[in-house]
Specification:
The complex is a heterodimer. Chain A is an alpha+beta fold. Chain A has 2 domains: 78 residues, no CATH class; 90 residues, no CATH class. Chain A contains 8 helices and 13 strands. The longest helix of chain A has 16 residues. The termini of chain A are far apart. Chain B has 23 helices and 20 strands. In chain B, helix 15 crosses helix 17, helix 21 runs antiparallel to helix 22 and helix 22 runs antiparallel to helix 23. Classes of the chains: A alpha+beta, B alpha+beta. At the A-B interface, helix 1, helix 2 and strand 12 of A face strand 12 and strand 13 of B.
Chain lengths: 223, 563
């Protein structure tokens, strides 16, 4: 008990320090609406803290998963994605030293990505995703749309203060690549590359919580 | 109205009178809280108090409904007097009541809206307002409020009897609401005109009074109160066993008194808990020890951001707990009394109390010596003009704790045996004349150990350990030695130093603001515990900066800051 007390005291202290992570969403879209997507979760900046958490059974009343459980969970995610029609070449990487996790796949048409997201949502949410697409590409107008229907700010405000802390220094970055030049983008914070064929947008979790910005965007390509 | 009244009560109690109010509190009240408004407003003037954002916000909220309110004075309550809350339960209903003094009856009456005013019943000089849950009664000088919470269990157990009293098509909920409202109104009436034995005839309560305290909490019988709460929470189990279930009266705790003080350079909360005569000896045996003086040879108070000291007699703990447990758990779960007793007898047979007491004496000192900045590498990405990413390694500063743990032991022989076993199984690595622990590879610090002078030393600093081994350790303890030796346990934190050691990069924007204010305004904080006679004393002290007017102001300013 004594040892546990000391551990709790020490790691409790480490946990006081804020967390930090980044999410990167990369989509490469071909002319025919097919393409590749990679999602990266990089917790490397917080690795000391995660290493400490991994020594504990639970934190903020959440059970801390073991390395094996993390791997198992990922394998299940990959399996679900693989079973989605229109999706192929699903792969993932797990780096438990740096705590970097990636998931990538190819899609036949962009709507398959909405189906992937629906597969991880409740029935009610799945229906909403169907109506309000997270990814869309209109070939006629050559417009790529990234959206979502959740009120992320509200969802985060609904979490308790302790949990909310982990979002304090988090960020999300989206990079979309096209074969045609970009004509315009609605999200003013997004930056178009020199070649005009890529666009990057970095939003901090704080921006999203305070409703200052989001990763929503409408990108028009040259016809 | 209810909302407004509670807002006023909140303000008045955060801020409280003479014996005439106390004489209305029955001698059988289980809990009494007294808040001394005069004391608080001596420290922070009313105008200063009203300037705080949170108070302005509360006044504004009231003003939205009562236009005439611009200041706390407009509530008509005497904020310079003492205000009281007290609790009195019965089998069927729990009464939460409050008493405050009035300065301006008319202003107070203006707090009721038109509809509520029409419900006020006037009888002589006394006005009464009865709502479903709350009854308010007042005259020119005092106001009494009472809130009755019915006992679900009691009503459920006597359902048939109560259902027979239904009016027309009244449902059970309606019956409960009507009856408890009427009981509550009747209770308030009795209290308002009360001239029976008051709480002032209760010796334990009288003893608890301290004119210097800004607020006092008195619980007549802690065990009894916990039992009451348990009964009302676990009514089914209680009804089924209908016996000793959850009877914390047997837990051996008597009265509890907690007091809050705001002094010039510190704010303090003290508490006293009485222990039953039957248990007094056991608790005294466990908590009678003091940290052995030899520990101070390895303690340098200038090299401590925080520490925790515990002095407990391990042998007494192992000896007395098996005797206490059947009483404690037997009281909570009487159906398992025999099982608990057998399990603990078995424990006593297996464990050699004396031998364990020698191995770990119960003296322990944990010192947080420093927080050091370490360079940590991490992986991130950089992007070219076309947003192609390259993985890059960067470094950042991270805080890592530097600490020492010292545990007393009188059986070095056995410890060395254990260490040899540890070395064999590669849990330790032998250094020159000390050991390095083989911690999980990703632990953010190293740990070194040695057994010396009937103590186990564990520390993150190899230099400190070699100093201890070679008798080069520089000890310093004056004030803290006194504090540690006076108590059986101390948790101490040097707040300003501790906060300034945390690297800025690790703090969020709000935490940085907090850190700057805390560094300039807060000094040391400590929590102490000891037993004397049959009372367990504890005290939490927060020292504030010398250049500030008083600790209440520092804390109020602090709240403003965090907001």
């Amino acid at each position: 008990m004594f040892k546990k007390g000391i551990y709790t005291l020490l790691f409790g202290f480490l946990l006081l320090l804020t967390g930090c992570f980044e999410v990167i969403e990369e989509v490469t879209l071909n002319d025919d609406g097919s393409g590749d997507v990679t999602l990266t979760l990089n917790l490397s900046r917080s690795k000391t803290k995660i290493n400490s958490i991994m020594l504990l059974d639970s934190v903020n009343n959440y059970k801390v998963p073991s390395e094996a459980e993390v791997k198992k969970h990922f394998a299940e995610i990959v399996k679900t994605i693989e079973n989605t029609s229109g999706i192929s070449k699903v792969s993932n990487t797990i780096d438990m030293e740096e705590f970097i996790f990636t998931l990538s796949c190819s899609f036949d048409n962009i709507d398959a990505l909405n189906t992937v997201i629906s597969n991880f949502s409740s029935k009610k949410e799945a229906q909403r995703i169907k109506n309000h697409k997270h990814f869309a590409f209109d070939k006629a107008t050559q417009t790529f749309t990234r959206s979502y229907h959740y009120d992320v700010a509200k969802e985060i405000r609904n979490t308790n203060m302790k949990d909310r802390k982990i979002f304090e220094t988090a960020s999300i970055r989206s990079i979309y690549r096209f074969s045609k030049p970009i004509v315009s983008s609605e999200n003013k914070m997004a930056k178009i590359s020199g070649s005009k064929k890529a666009i990057m947008l970095k939003v901090t979790a704080q921006d999203i919580i305070k409703n200052r910005n989001s990763i929503k965007n409408k990108i028009k390509l040259q016809n | 109205m209810k909302k407004i009244f509670f807002t006023i009560a909140l303000i008045a109690t955060t801020i409280s009178f003479a014996q005439s109010l106390e004489s209305k509190i029955p001698s059988t009240a289980k809990i009494v809280i007294a808040v001394d408004g005069g004391k608080l407003f001596d420290l922070v003037s009313l105008s200063e108090f009203e300037n705080y954002e949170v108070i302005q916000y509360l006044i504004k909220q009231v003003k939205k409904q009562r236009e005439q309110v611009n200041s706390i004075a407009d509530f008509g309550i005497d904020i310079n007097a003492k205000a009281y809350y007290f609790y009195q339960p019965t089998d069927s209903i729990m009464y939460h009541s409050g008493l405050m003094k009035l300065t301006d009856r008319k202003a107070f009456e203006k707090m009721f809206d038109e509809k509520e005013t029409s419900k006020i019943v006037k009888k002589g000089n006394i006005n009464t307002f009865v709502d479903d849950e709350v009854t308010l009664m007042w005259n020119d000088n005092i106001v009494l409020f009472s809130n009755g919470m019915d006992s679900y269990w009691y009503f459920d157990a006597n359902r048939e009897r109560f259902e027979a009293q239904a009016n027309d098509d009244e449902d059970f909920y309606g019956i409960k609401k009507r009856l408890s409202s009427a009981w509550n109104a009747n209770y308030a009436k009795q209290l308002f005109n009360y001239n029976g034995a008051s709480i002032l005839s209760n010796q334990s309560y009288l003893k608890s009074k301290d004119n210097k305290a800004s607020a006092t909490l008195w619980i007549g019988n802690y065990g009894g109160m916990v039992s009451d709460i348990m009964k009302s929470s676990f009514y089914y189990a209680y009804a089924m066993s209908n016996s000793d279930f959850m009877n914390y009266n047997k837990m051996g705790f008597g009265s509890v008194v907690a007091q809050l003080y705001f002094e010039e350079e510190k704010a303090r909360i003290t508490s006293k808990m009485e222990i039953d005569d039957k248990w007094k000896k056991a608790f005294q045996r466990i908590y009678s020890s003091k940290l052995d003086r030899s520990f101070f040879k390895y303690f340098n108070e200038d090299d401590a951001l925080a520490y925790m000291s515990i002095a407990m007699d391990t042998e007494a703990v192992l000896d007395e707990y098996p005797k206490l447990m059947p009483e404690m758990y037997g009281g909570m779960l009487p159906q398992y009394r025999e099982e608990t007793s057998v399990a603990l007898d078995l424990f006593s047979v297996i464990v050699d109390e004396e031998a364990v007491g020698e191995l770990v004496t119960g003296d322990m000192l944990f010192i947080l010596n420093d927080i050091i900045e370490k360079d940590i590498t991490y992986t991130t990405y950089e992007y070219d003009d076309d947003y192609n990413e390259t993985e890059v390694t960067k470094t950042k500063k991270e805080a890592s704790p530097d600490f020492t743990i010292i545990v007393g032991s009188e059986n070095e022989k056995l410890l060395f045996k254990l260490i040899r076993l540890g070395v064999k199984h590669e849990a330790f690595e032998t250094k020159k004349n000390y050991y390095k622990l083989n911690l999980p590879s990703k632990t953010p610090f190293d740990l070194f150990a040695v057994i010396k002078d009937e103590k186990i030393f564990l520390t993150t600093s190899e230099k400190r350990l070699t100093d201890i081994v070679s008798n080069r350790f520089v000890a310093k303890s004056g004030l803290h030695k006194k504090l540690i030796r006076k108590n059986s346990s101390v948790v101490y934190m040097n707040l300003d130093n501790l906060i300034s050691k945390i690297p800025e990069s690790e703090l969020s924007k709000d935490e940085k603001k907090f850190a700057v204010y805390a560094k300039d305004n807060l000094k040391d904080a400590y929590l102490t515990g000891k037993m004397k006679g049959n009372v367990i004393y504890s005290e939490l002290v927060l020292e504030t900066a010398k250049n500030r007017k008083n600790s209440l102001k520092v804390l109020l300013d602090f709240l403003e800051f965090v907001d």
